[in-house]
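To whoever is on call:

I kicked off a structure prediction for a single chain this morning and the downstream step that reads the tokens threw a length-mismatch warning. I double-checked the sequence; it's 173 residues and nothing unusual in it as far as I can see. Pasting both halves so you can look.
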Amino acid sequence: MRTTIILALLYCLIATGCKNNPYMAASGSEIEIYLLKSYNKVAGTDAINASSVVLEDNPLISYEDIVWYDSSNYTFKITEAPAKWLNDFQTNHSHGRTFAVTIDKKVLYTGYFWASFSSASCNWITIDPLNYAGKNELRVSIGYPGLMPGVTIPDLRNDKKLIEILEADKKLK
């Protein structure tokens, strides 16, 4: 009898703890942004070959760091810590660094952090890492300064699974 009561109490504690865990995504999935350890580009382009991507060990932007995503303008609102890191050009040199947006550590799409002060173009997905207005918002764009004529870039910014996860977790704006 005593063992049964202890087991019942232990079960309640575990169940309650998991249910109320603020770091547990309601959807059961997580979207994260990783820097890339290594990758190969498609010959003669800026396109990153997704099958060659090796992610850094830890995400640059964890799911907890994503406050919301606005699917109408492809913008992630993030917390202060990763925004501060991205804006620290003296230490981090994020311009030109490659990243991957992942779902449960599987690459959804790749891109480059491409600062708006750049005079060079980029024919791939880009995020301007600079946060001039202090809003901690990262807008995901197709190419920099925009999509070049004759170039096709797969657009997975509003992938169905990504939107479903964000909606389930009330992070979709």
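Update from on-call: the warning came from a stale cache, not from the record. Cleared it. Sanity check on the structure: The mean pLDDT is 85.
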